[in-house]
Design goal:
The chain is an alpha/beta fold. Helix content is 40%, strand content 22%.
Length: 371
């Protein structure tokens, strides 16, 4: 049985379990402006030729050195952003009950988060950051303003929610997604507070899953990154702990852990996921380049190709959708292979359709996936 047929079989058998699962996502929030850099314009509106790749964009910028230049950013849409809100929305659309805590607007929730806030009974800690997402055929550049995320702290969580109410919420969770470490200065402190003040005081739960996403740690120091990874390691004592990494993030993590870089092919990705998992003693490490994904557990390592497209409708949020699909699979006890397939299908569907999929969408996507 191939991985697609295997996943369809597991999805049919286990999808009903999802309605009983409660998830939490946090703690960031961004207002994303999705833009296309213009190469040459031939008329108003969408009458232009875009700059196709990041390499082309870099050459355009480089030519301006010692002079100056003007690059038009054609705004396609404004929407909710941030790893937490995007993943929360994907989990919701996939069928999980979700609560949200994060930077989505004070004293009023920003309009782009209104629907998410209503559906997740959200608590807002601060105003959102802002992102211009420059999308290209070979990737994206995220230009961020993050100063408002300095207000996202454990003290803010307790002040807004109340300690008793927060502890009660945490005690009922099956899935806890703690994402965007890079852009939240106090995130490691929040994690340590959860480990020291919250989790030891909660009743044990047979099924509790933690999902961590670092969100491109390039701008953080190696010492900060290593401290964050060692803090993530401590969560394994309180539930299955998943570290989700894109290829660039996996290379950064490997470097600070002293792990040799591997080739980004099937065997190399499986070895890299295995070494990172072993070094941190985590339940699962998943690595998701643009065109495939691999993961390692205590038992073994797995790999699936992705439904890659050279003409995505959007790429912003692709990694968050992988995390959502993979986490849904793990939460309903799908196999690692099927969970990987769920992850690449959630991501593949979103980049083609610019929206999050339902499980029915994933079923149809799998049945129509052409090799």
């Amino acid at each position: 049985m191939n991985f697609k047929a295997h996943t369809l079989e597991e999805l049919e058998a286990k999808r009903s379990r999802l309605s009983s699962r409660l998830g939490l996502a946090g703690f960031d929030g961004f207002v994303d402006r999705i833009v296309t850099p213009v190469a040459t314009r031939s008329g108003p509106g969408g009458n232009f030729k875009p700059i196709p790749t990041i390499s082309d964009f870099a050459r355009r910028v480089e030519r301006a050195a010692g002079q100056s230049t003007n690059i038009e950013l054609f705004a396609r849409e404004q929407r909710l952003g941030g790893n937490g809100p995007i993943m929360a929305h994907a989990l919701l659309t996939g069928g999980m009950k979700v609560r949200y805590i994060g930077a989505i607007g004070v004293p009023e929730v920003h309009p782009v988060f209104k629907d998410l806030a209503l559906k997740t009974e959200a608590f807002s800690l601060a105003n959102p950051g802002a992102t211009d997402a420059l999308e290209f055929n070979d990737g994206k550049l995220m230009l961020n303003s993050t100063s408002t995320l300095e207000d996202v702290t454990y003290d803010a969580i307790i002040r807004v929610i109340g300690e008793g109410k927060f502890f009660d919420l945490f005690s009922r969770l099956h899935v806890i997604s703690l994402v965007n470490w890079t852009m939240i200065p106090s995130m490691t402190d929040i994690w340590n507070a959860l480990l020291d003040k919250v989790l030891p005081n909660l009743p044990s739960r047979d099924q509790r899953t933690f999902l961590f996403d670092l969100a491109d740690p390039e701008k953080r120091s190696d010492s900060d990154l290593k401290s964050a990874l060692l803090t993530i390691k401590r969560f394994q004592s309180h539930g299955k702990t998943i570290l989700g990494l894109n290829l660039k993030e996996a290379k950064s993590v490997a470097r600070v852990l002293g792990i040799r870089e591997e080739e980004p092919n099937e065997d190399g990705l499986k070895r890299l996921a295995t070494k990172i998992r072993q070094e941190l003693s985590l339940g699962v490490v998943a690595i998701h380049p643009r065109d495939c994904a691999a993961c390692a557990t205590r038992e073994d390592a797995w790999y699936v190709p992705g439904p890659y497209t050279e003409t995505p409708a959007t790429t912003t949020g692709a990694g968050d959708h992988f995390n959502a699909g993979f986490t849904i699979g793990q939460t309903v006890n799908m196999s690692p292979l099927a969970s990987l397939t769920m992850g690449v299908c959630f991501s593949g569907y979103m980049v083609r359709n610019s929206r999050s999929p339902s499980l029915n969408d994933i079923d149809s996507f799998l049945r129509n996936w052409q090799d």
